[in-house]
């Protein structure tokens, strides 16, 4: 029987980069800000700002990238994801467009 590999051995670290901000992000995220995910943890020391609302949208993609899944196999064309805040005129905040990448692709 083939040995089972641990999930930790199969995963990669991920960086989420803010590519565009429309309006004023209520979490203070600006273009170029990064969120670094190492294993199952968000590295607060290496991240600029972290928004819990944005994570509700980007977490499925974060897990796919961590596991090395080809997003095209999931029917997705790219790695750009938008947070849930629609921004003006609907809210006082703003919406952020994020790119989710394996950490080694961002270096």
Features:
single chain, 2 helices, CHP04076, 5-stranded antiparallel β-sheet, TIGR04076 family protein, 18% helix
Radius of gyration: 15 Å
Uncertain segments: none
Give the strand line-up of the largest sheet. 3-2-1-5-4
Overall mean pLDDT stands at 86
Choose one word for the global shape: globular
Give the H and E element order: HEEEHEE
Termini separation (Å)?
38 Å
The count of domains is 1
Number of helices: 2
Beta-strand proportion: 25-35%
DSSP strand count: 5
Account of the 3D structure:
InterPro entries: CHP04076 (IPR023811). This is TIGR04076 family protein. This protein has 107 residues and is of the alpha+beta class. It has one domain. Helix content is 18%, strand content 28%. The protein has 2 helices and 5 strands, in the order H-E-E-E-H-E-E. A 5-stranded antiparallel beta sheet has the order 3-2-1-5-4, with helices on one face. The protein is globular. The termini are far apart. The model has no long low-confidence stretch (mean pLDDT 86).
């Amino acid at each position: 029987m083939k040995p089972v590999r641990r999930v930790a051995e199969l995963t990669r670290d991920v960086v989420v980069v803010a590519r565009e901000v429309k309006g004023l992000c209520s979490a203070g995220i600006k273009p170029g800000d990064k969120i670094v995910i190492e294993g199952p943890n968000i590295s607060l020391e290496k991240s600029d700002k972290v928004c819990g609302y944005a994570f509700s949208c980007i977490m499925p993609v974060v897990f796919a990238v961590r596991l090395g899944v080809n997003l095209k196999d999931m029917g997705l064309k790219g790695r750009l994801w938008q947070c849930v805040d629609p921004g003006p005129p609907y809210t006082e905040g703003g919406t952020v467009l994020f790119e989710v990448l394996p950490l080694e692709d961002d270096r």
